[in-house]
Amino acid sequence: MDVTVGEPAPEIALPDQDGALWRLSDHRGQPVVVYFYPKADTPGCTSQACDVRDHWGELTAIGAAVAGISPDPVEQLSRFATKHALPHRLLADPQREAIDAYGVWGEKHRDGEVRHGVIRSSVVIDAEGRIAAAVPGISPTQQSAAALEALRALAR
């Protein structure tokens, strides 16, 4: 990852699953969880997004905004969000603007092959817009636990 705890978070301005522009700067004053995933509606990515859905009450009780980012087009994200009843924003980044800014594109090793793609990662941004936590290579089912731990630390 190309982000460091304590540094300002790179701006994000991407369309969500409904085609509306979502900007990180619009959420100044509240913590934000941003997670990166390779491809909508694949097993690991579905687990990651549904983990957020299943902990939605805890995340919103802390006051966090949540956005998941992938290189998928808006239409695919819309289907994914509807199919799995996802309550949070999914952002389309086919040009890899945020993906590259956060440094989550890289080599992935699977079944003896080396490919390039999104490295599943999670970032928590504090209310002032600074990186509070960054977890590269996060397990899909640990997304919310890691985010909640970081958010609770911010609240102390």
Give a topology summary.
Blueprint (H helix, E strand, L loop, with lengths): L12 E3 L5 E3 L8 E5 L6 H12 L1 H6 L3 E6 L3 H10 L5 E4 L4 H5 L3 E6 L2 E6 L2 E5 L5 E6 L6 H13 L1
Parallel strand pairs: 3-4, 4-5
Antiparallel strand pairs: 1-2, 3-8, 6-7, 8-9
Description:
By secondary structure, this protein is an alpha/beta fold. The chain has a single domain, classed as Glutaredoxin (3-Layer(aba) Sandwich), CATH 3.40.30.10. It is built from five helices and nine strands; from the N terminus they run βββααβαβαββββα. The chain has a five-stranded mixed beta sheet with strand order 5-4-3-8-9. Strands 1-2 form a two-stranded antiparallel ribbon. Strands 6-7 form a two-stranded antiparallel sheet. α3 links the parallel β4 and β5. The protein is globular, with a radius of gyration of 14 Å. The model has no long low-confidence stretch (mean pLDDT 95).
Can you summarize this structure?
With 156 residues, the protein is α/β, with parallel strands linked by helices. Helix content is 29%, strand content 28%.
| Uncertain stretches of 5 or more adjacent residues | none
Number of alpha- plus pi-helical segments: 5
CATH topology: Glutaredoxin
Estimate the global geometry from the Cα principal axes.
globular
Category from helices, strands and their pairing: alpha/beta
CATH superfamily heading: Glutaredoxin
> What is the straight-line distance between the termini?
26 Å
How many strands?
Answer: 9
Average per-residue pLDDT, rounded, comes to 95
Rg result: 14 Å
CATH class: Alpha Beta
Biggest β-sheet, characterized? 5 strands, mixed
The percentage helix is 25-40%
Strand order of the largest sheet: 5-4-3-8-9
